[in-house]
Amino acid sequence: MEITILSPGIYTYGAMLIGGVLRDAGHRVTLTRTPAVPADSVLLMSLFSTQHLLDPAIRDLVRTHRERGGLVYVGGPVSAAPEMVLGELAPDAVVVGEGEETVIRLVEEGVSDALPGIAFLDAGRPVVTPPAPPASMDRPLPLIPDDIGNQSVRGASAYIETHRGCIGGCTFCQVPRFFGRAIRSRPLDRIVEEVKAFSAHGATRLSVSGGTGSLYGSTGGEMNPEAFIGLLRSMAEVMGPKNVSSPDIRVDCISDEILGAVRQYTIGWVFFGIESGSDRVLRLMGKGATVRQVEEAVERCREHGLRVAGSFIVGYPGETERDYEATKDLIAALSLDDVFVSSAEPIPATPLADLAVRTPRDKNPAFVPHTGEYRALSLTESEARCFDLMMHADLFRPQLRLVTDEVYNTYLAEARKQGRDIRAATELILRYARA
Ligand code: SF4
């Protein structure tokens, strides 16, 4: 069968994996980042953002492809809310959750209520079949496009999946809901084979993905530092340490041996999801870590000569001015090498989405007009905090970065864009919560 997989904007690992699964099942598969699809091809869309459901180009593509008689199936992280995908895009079916095994049966046998792990419309009524069992972690090589070397996702050609699941329960995150809280790791020899294949296709740098890299090899809630260190060492043997990164690590999932290996076998960066300088907000977020743990983790990384980036979330429902000031103080104290700021975005089927439904608009910072320092800019409270924190962070980097007019306008545009996207996502979630 002729199959085109659309992964909008970037080749995600999930799209490449599904491509590999279908290729090994004997189908002719093309992977594309742009919505141009031959009429005679089955179209699989791998969608990872709520914004994709609202994107006019994607909506048009589904409609026109189906009008031309083509089949359209949607999978990826958006499938956590199958009714929403069916309601917004009306594809032939949604592959719900881990789709490696379901997708083969779907393209070969078609839509059926006997097929677990899918959702479809039956006379306009959504039908969601029982969940498919978790997919095997021993699976085919991904379909790696020849231009993978041109892609840069935070500096990496690709984030390869070494394990699934996360022990965390952060309210804003989909990972533990999609993959579960138990860690399932891939065999090391299969990962190495995959790293070699990526390298042969021109990948210049590979990153470890899976929520928290150092959970690789964990079993029964016990971390296995040796497994993680072996993983980094093996990746570095193929790519060279300057071309491997494993940035995403929880502050409570580090040790001296883990940080030593990150220093020895990777580019030497750690990326902590710090989120807030207020313990109260960290508790609201279900982060499972305290500000004190953040401070200690950053200090420990520095002792190992690592560079540390941190991400922060502002405008979480319930965040007060005092909480926000605590976040600014923490950024000043940590002097991080890089800082990423985002406004709290409710992702469907997460506890934050439920909270957004329960929070009245006049109490939700994503909708409340800002009346403070930036009132002349007509921002919402979360947009104002996002904008302000981006500029604030620049004052405390080890390397001074001047906030020029251009930087100011870039930050302002970014804060506004995030605000628009979050309001659109919230409206969507509210609409389906009421349905
Ligand atoms: S630690 Fe990271 S991957 Fe795990 S739940 Fe929290 S944000 Fe998600």
UniProtKB/TrEMBL annotation:
Q: Which InterPro entries match?
A: BchE-like (IPR051198), CHP04014_B12-bd/rSAM (IPR023979), Elp3/MiaA/NifB-like_rSAM (IPR006638), Methylthiotransferase_CS (IPR020612), Methyltransferase_Class_B (IPR034466), rSAM (IPR007197), rSAM_horseshoe (IPR023404), rSAM_sf (IPR058240)
Q: Does the keyword Iron-sulfur apply?
A: yes
Q: Which cofactor does the UniProt annotation name? A: [4Fe-4S] cluster
- PROSITE patterns per the UniProt record, alphabetical: MTTASE_RADICAL, RADICAL_SAM
Q: Which SMART domains match?
A: Elp3
Q: Where is the Radical SAM core domain?
A: 152-388
This protein is called what?
A: Methyl-coenzyme M reductase glutamine C-methyltransferase
One GO MF annotation is: catalytic activity
Gene3D superfamilies, per the entry = Cobalamin-binding domain, tm_1862 like domain
The UniProt keyword set, sorted, is:
4Fe-4S, Iron, Iron-sulfur, Metal-binding, S-adenosyl-L-methionine
Q: Which PANTHER family match?
A: ANAEROBIC MAGNESIUM-PROTOPORPHYRIN IX MONOMETHYL ESTER CYCLASE-RELATED, METHYLTHIOTRANSFERASE MJ0865-RELATED
